[in-house]
Design goal:
136 residues, 6 helices, 51% helix
Length: 136
């Protein structure tokens, strides 16, 4: 591998590590009573959404998808029999978030908003209500 390629790989890994840290910080900043209610959810950083993710989210070509909740929201689960299932998943997409932000502070804030937005879907809050709350 040539030196330029090695440097690009190092830079990519450093950016990815920093972005993951921002996601962890956003989750850790949640109130303890909210954190205590989050069970069996994987929050992952992905480079960009797949075509299937975009279709699932109903995002047309040309629009950005910053995050996606994959799962059954808590209010829809009922009180019995919701076990032996794989974890829900929240995907946070690094490239689209970085594409709309100009500074590190903007990236940090957008990561926080995106994590909150997707966790809200886990708790059963829809996009209309999230718009009202300023997390649309």
């Amino acid at each position: 591998m040539d030196d330029v390629r090695k440097e690009r790989v190092r830079a990519f890994r450093a950016r990815r590590a920093r972005f993951r840290r921002l996601v962890r910080e956003a989750v850790a900043s949640l109130p303890p009573e909210l954190l205590a209610r989050i069970e069996n959810v994987d929050i992952v950083v992905e480079q960009r959404p797949t075509a299937a993710d975009r279709k699932l989210a109903g995002v047309p070509p040309g629009q950005l998808l910053l995050g996606l909740y994959h799962g059954i929201p808590l209010p829809q689960r009922g009180t019995q029999g919701y076990n032996l299932v794989p974890p829900d998943k929240i995907s946070i997409y690094q490239e689209p978030i970085e594409a709309i932000c100009r500074t590190d502070d903007e990236i940090r804030e957008q990561v926080r908003i995106t994590v909150l937005h997707e966790l809200a879907h886990y708790f059963g809050i829809d996009d209309d209500r999230l718009e009202e709350l300023g997390l649309g």
